[in-house]
Amino acid sequence: MHITILNGPNLNLLGTRQPEVYGATTLADIEHMCQRKAQALGLEIEFNQTNHEGVLIDQIHAARSESDGLIINAGAYTHTSVALMDAVASVSLPTVEVHLSNIHARESFRHTSFLSPVALGLICGFGATGYVMALDGIWAHLTAADSARP
């Protein structure tokens, strides 16, 4: 099974950007954590980051033919992008939305997610561990779906 993990704007600055909110873990550290977890689960992953909404949409579209599932931390686009929501909905892949911080405990504008209505699940507030939790969750979902098939 192949999982695409997408990261949106400003996540390339993890480790130095607002460590009191996002922690000291870098995106490279998170990718390494995900690689280790994926290997343990027998998954292949593709891990990407971009600061551009259109690139995220293109990557979601590409995942349609390359992946069995999608994990996305869309950063601030979570709260603003109908286009990302439409892209996720259009590819019909099980999708887990991830946020390092608890978006519901922050500013009120962060309480709205355009992705949650089209996602299988949402993990927020657990820092970098949320990505590992997302891999566990999507693996469990996919293997349950496989075992339910005749």
List the defining traits of the structure above.
150 residues, alpha/beta, Rossmann fold, five-stranded parallel sheet, 5 helices, 42% helix, globular, 3-dehydroquinate dehydratase
CATH fold name: Rossmann fold
H/E element order: EHHEHEHEEH
CATH class: Alpha Beta
Low-confidence stretches: none
- Kindly report the average pLDDT value: 91
Describe this structure in words.
The structure is a single chain. The protein has 150 residues and is of the alpha/beta class. It has a single domain (2-148), classed as 3-Layer(aba) Sandwich (Rossmann fold). 42% of the residues lie in helices and 17% in strands. The chain contains five helices and five strands; from the N terminus they run βααβαβαββα. The chain has helices at residues 19-22, 27-41, 53-66, 82-91, 129-148; strands spanning 2-7, 44-49, 69-73, 95-99, 121-124. The chain has a five-stranded parallel β-sheet, sandwiched between helices. Helix 2 runs parallel beside helix 5 (129-148) and helix 3 runs parallel beside helix 4 (82-91). 33% of the residues are buried. The model has no long low-confidence stretch (mean pLDDT 91). Belongs to the type-II 3-dehydroquinase family. Keywords: Amino-acid biosynthesis, Aromatic amino acid biosynthesis, Lyase. It catalyses: 3-dehydroquinate = 3-dehydroshikimate + H2O.
Sequence-ordered SSE layout with sheet pairings:
Elements: E1 2-7, H1 19-22, H2 27-41, E2 44-49, H3 53-66, E3 69-73, H4 82-91, E4 95-99, E5 121-124, H5 129-148
Site (Transition state stabilizer): 17
EC number: 4.2.1.10
Subunit structure: Homododecamer.
